[in-house]
Specification:
By secondary structure, the protein is α/β, with parallel strands linked by helices. The chain has helices at residues 12-24, 73-78, 81-92, 104-109, 153-165, 167-176; strands at residues 2-6, 29-33, 38-40, 46-48, 51-52, 64-67, 96-100, 117-118, 132-133, 138-141, 144-147. Strand 10 and strand 11 form a beta hairpin.
Length: 182
């Protein structure tokens, strides 16, 4: 199971792309509302969640936790103690974590990227500490995947598919979606 976390003001392209691409790859993916079952993005698009964060009782079935960016969505995710606890548990259990755009700041805030290679939306690296900034669209460092922003949401999502289902599945899906890898 992949859990994608939504807070008011999330970046729609980043959040919906990851959910759509993972589901196309037949990866069980749930949209999780931080405060409610209906969440509105930064550009006024409201989405009905599969469940709320309070309904997650264990990460025993979790393959990956995903944090879309966007403002003020990232700020709201950062403020959630429930999410903080799940992220710390994911780190301790070696569960993949993926964050795009401003969302890597959440991981930094909670001390979860120390010494790791990370990319983010330009300028947000100044809000993070104890990491190695890499100026690339998508960066993987072990169980951590980060993406630069909405324009690379497809590449970010396909990287998540690759780590969960393999390169061949990711490549086949990229071809079907007519995604250019260069």
């Amino acid at each position: 199971m992949v859990y994608v976390f939504f807070a008011e003001g999330f970046e729609e392209i980043e959040a919906i792309t990851i959910v759509d691409v993972l589901r196309r790859a037949d990866i069980r993916t749930h949209m999780i509302g931080i405060n409610s079952k209906e969440v509105t993005g930064a550009h006024g698009i409201s989405i009905l969640m599969d469940q709320t964060i309070n309904e997650i009782t264990s990460l025993s079935d979790a393959l990956m936790l995903v944090l879309p960016g966007g403002m003020p969505g990232s700020k709201h995710l950062m403020e959630s103690d429930s999410l903080k606890n799940l992220l710390i548990s994911a780190r301790d259990l070696d569960i993949y974590m993926a964050a795009i755009c401003a969302a890597p700041t959440i991981l930094s805030y909670h001390g979860l990227i120390k010494g790791r290679k990370v990319t983010c939306y330009p300028g947000f690296e100044k809000e993070m500490t104890d990491f190695v900034h890499v100026d690339e669209n998508v960066v993987q460092d072990g169980t951590l995947i980060t993406g630069k922003g909405a324009g690379v949401a497809m590449a970010f999502a396909l990287k998540c598919v690759e780590v969960l289902k393999g390169h061949k599945v990711s490549e086949k899906l990229a071809s079907a979606l007519i995604h250019q890898t260069t």
